[in-house]
Structure formats: structure tokens, C-alpha cells
User: Which sequence fits this backbone?
């Protein structure tokens, strides 16, 4: 991984200073200046640490505090702090699906006026811009965007005869699964009982023209839509993979990192794998990862597979938004800092260093990013983020996601005729207070 970039982030005309007090939770640093605590997820720690240092000023310091690895655990820790009116939670890196819940609970400061204009303007891609808004107000700043594409070995696709369909973006999940099964390959997904499994199911449902829920601003009275033709089409994909020889042996506990090794195994044809943007840097040869130039040349990518033939896929949309805690003792500083850590320069550093793609369109044209990635891949990332499908935007997202995960797991038990109906009933019961997760 490339080292942190320095001296980039000064959007508000304040002078850069030093020092990251990474372990303190106190309101003031040793110099007597206030310390803003920024809770981050583990992605891009070195670059985020550099951002915290560069965005510290003569008036305040920014200290990094590390959240757990999983999105659900991140939400739990932050929710507990904010529910207790914690004044030391100044900045937080949020999975976009948690913005509505936190905003609805009055746990986030609203970005207003110039601050709102600075973090959401015409340069921000539509997907990320939508994630920071709740009830027509802006409650966070998009920092980086994420999406999934289909990663695969070109040699496997050629042997299976689906290279053209993949490059045209018309390949279906059924075709990909069959291609792997018939050519000694596998298909890698995220199907453990955790948030990324919900990401897969949601993308499958949306790719068939449906939604898991709609009218989400109605709260617990949201319309539950998963018991539909789209829900059954999604279940057919999960069931097909679970019953296929292309399923990897750890399917029911598979996560983002578990299928990476199946791309270039010792023997075997490799895999087709849906995964996030970080994958490219994972396989790019360096002094420590052991991948060869020949292997890297065989790595290919294509748009997320279609759920049903003739219907455009809806790639997952994720990333990180920066929220400001409602109980911070330094709201003006925290809002200023949130703008500083989300500038185009900051987004460029996260993309180049860590494979965390920009939420701003203009950053994709920066020469440093073009030099770091294949241009066709950057185009695919940007188009997938712009055209992709968000997860349900609801103040009760945690309950919706948990309901889906529990009724669709394990994948081997998914039944297209029963699972969507069972899932719909359980979502309604959980939202209505008749059942617990």
C-alpha cells in the first residue's frame, strides 16, 4: 500500500498543524486545544490518520478512534454512545444505511447553508448524494463510495464462452454459476449471516425490478414488497448457487475476504467473484502479496451480473459518510472538520492509497487515479455507483436487514416458493413489534 499523502486538505483556509492523539477521549489535547474524536471503520486507517493530522488546526486537534470491523458492530457502538448523549463523539464514519436511523433519532447535526452546499454539490455522484439526505435535509458528508463488480479470470471466462456477455454487461447470475460449474471454477459471494448478505439479496431483488420494502418514510408501516416475482427470482439465484458444484465450501460463512484466495488457487480454474473495489489492489503484484504479473494480467472485471435476463443489474452501493454527533461540545469545529476530510483531495488519497473510490465525479479524472487503475475499471466503478441500487433508506433499517438475514440464512435452505413469503411476514412482525430478531 502506498504511504499517506501529506499537505492536501485545506478547503477552509485554516492552517495545518500537527499531532494525532490516537488514544485520548478527553475534550482537550495536551496543548489545551479541544480534541475532536473521529470514530472510523478499519478501512484506510493510514490515510485517515493522515487526514486527521492534516485537518487539525490551530484551534483543534482530531483524534482517531477505531470502530469494530463489522458494520453492525460499528452501528451498535455508535448508537450506544449517542443514545447516552455522549459529547465526545464528534465525528463518525457511517455506513450510509445508518444515516436515516441516526438522523431520525436526532443523533446527527444537520449540515445547513454553506456547509450543506460544500458537501453535496453537482460534483457528487447521485448515489452517494442520496445517502446523506433524510427528510430533505443533509445529515452527513459523502467521503468515499463503494460498489461491487464481478471479478474473474479471463482464462476461465474464455473457457466457458461467456467473455462477450460479461464485457457487454448482459451476463446473468445463472450463466455465471453454470459457467463456473462446468469449467472447474467456483463463484465467490458474501453469504454469512451479516450485513453483506443483505447487500447481495437486495441487489438480486432490485436487479429483478423489485424492492425489499418501499414507502420507508412511513417507518414501521413501510410497504413490504419482498414476497414478489422479484423476491422469488432473487431466491432462485441463491438456491441455484447453494446447490451448485460452483459453490465454495464455506458459502454459509463466506465474507469479503474469504473468497479472495480462490481466484488463483494451486490448481483449478479460479473463480467468478462479486466483491468491492478494494479487490484490484489486493491482486496487484507487490513485494508482499506474492501475486505474479501473469496472474494479474488474467484478472478481469465486468458489471454486476443480472438477476434475470433482459433486466439491467443494480450493483450494490456502499461507502462511508461522515456524520457529526449531535451532542458534540464543538459543533462548528466538527462541521468544519467533516468538510475537510471529505474534500476532492482527501477522496483522491483514499482511492489511490486504499482502493476506496471517490464519491465525486471529478476525482475520477485526476491523473494520479488514472495512473493507479485501469481506465476501464474506473469507468465501471463510476457507472456502477451512479446506476446502482441502494439498500432500503429507513430509520428502521437495522430491523429490516436483520429480518432478511435471519430468514434467508443459510443459503442452502432458501426456497424460491417459501422464503420470500416467510421473509415478508417476519419483516412485518418485527416492524410491528410482534417478533424479535
Assistant:
Amino acid at each position: 500500500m502506498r504511504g499517506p499523502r501529506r499537505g492536501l486538505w485545506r478547503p477552509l483556509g485554516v492552517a495545518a498543524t500537527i499531532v494525532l492523539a490516537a488514544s485520548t477521549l478527553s475534550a482537550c489535547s495536551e496543548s489545551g486545544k479541544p480534541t475532536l474524536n473521529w470514530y472510523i471503520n478499519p478501512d484506510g486507517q493510514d490515510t485517515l490518520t493522515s487526514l486527521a493530522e492534516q485537518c487539525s488546526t490551530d484551534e483543534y486537534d482530531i483524534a482517531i478512534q477505531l470502530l469494530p470491523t463489522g458494520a453492525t458492530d460499528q452501528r451498535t457502538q455508535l448508537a450506544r454512545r449517542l443514545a447516552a448523549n455522549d459529547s465526545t463523539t464528534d465525528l463518525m464514519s457511517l455506513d450510509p444505511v445508518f444515516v436515516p436511523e441516526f438522523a431520525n433519532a436526532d443523533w446527527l447535526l444537520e449540515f445547513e447553508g454553506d456547509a450543506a452546499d460544500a458537501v453535496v454539490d453537482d460534483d457528487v455522484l447521485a448515489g452517494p448524494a442520496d445517502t446523506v439526505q433524510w427528510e430533505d435535509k443533509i445529515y452527513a458528508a459523502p467521503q468515499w463510495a463503494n460498489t461491487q463488480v464481478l471479478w474473474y479470470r479471463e482464462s476461465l471466462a474464455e473457457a466457458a464462452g461467456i467473455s462477450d456477455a460479461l464485457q457487454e454487461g448482459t451476463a446473468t447470475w445463472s450463466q455465471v454459476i453454470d459457467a463456473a460449474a462446468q469449467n472447474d471454477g467456483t463463484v465467490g459471494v458474501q453469504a454469512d449471516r451479516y450485513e453483506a448478505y443483505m447487500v447481495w439479496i437486495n441487489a438480486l431483488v432490485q436487479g429483478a425490478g423489485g424492492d425489499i420494502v418501499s414507502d420507508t418514510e412511513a417507518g414501521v408501516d413501510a410497504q413490504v414488497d419482498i414476497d414478489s416475482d422479484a423476491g422469488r427470482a432473487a431466491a432462485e439465484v441463491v438456491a441455484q448457487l447453494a446447490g451448485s458444484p460452483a459453490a465454495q465450501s464455506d458459502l454459509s460463512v463466506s465474507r469479503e475476504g474469504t473468497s479472495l484466495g480462490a481466484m488463483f488457487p494451486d490448481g483449478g480454474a479460479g473463480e467468478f467473484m462479486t466483491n468491492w473495489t478494494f479487490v484490484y489492489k489486493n491482486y496487484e503484484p507487490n513485494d508482499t502479496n506474492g501475486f505474479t504479473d501473469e496472474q494479474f494480467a488474467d484478472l478481469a472485471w465486468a458489471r454486476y451480473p443480472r438477476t434475470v435476463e433482459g433486466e439491467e443489474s443494480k450493483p450494490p452501493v456502499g461507502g462511508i459518510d461522515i456524520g457529526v454527533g449531535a451532542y458534540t461540545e464543538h459543533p462548528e469545529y466538527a462541521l468544519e472538520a467533516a468538510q475537510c476530510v471529505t474534500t476532492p483531495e482527501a477522496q483522491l488519497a483514499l482511492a489511490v492509497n486504499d482502493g476506496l473510490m471517490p464519491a465525486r465525479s471529478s476525482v475520477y479524472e485526476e491523473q494520479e487515479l488514472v495512473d493507479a487503475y485501469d481506465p476501464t475499471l474506473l469507468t465501471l466503478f463510476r457507472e456502477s455507483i451512479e446506476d446502482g441500487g441502494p439498500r432500503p433508506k429507513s430509520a428502521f433499517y437495522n430491523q429490516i436487514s436483520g429480518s432478511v438475514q435471519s430468514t434467508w440464512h443459510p443459503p442452502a435452505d432458501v426456497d424460491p416458493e417459501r422464503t420470500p413469503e416467510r421473509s415478508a411476514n417476519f419483516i412485518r412482525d418485527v416492524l410491528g413489534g410482534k417478533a424479535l430478531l
Confidence is low (pLDDT under 50) at residues 1-26. The longest strand covers residues 317-324. The chain has two domains: 35-139+317-378, 147-315+391-431.
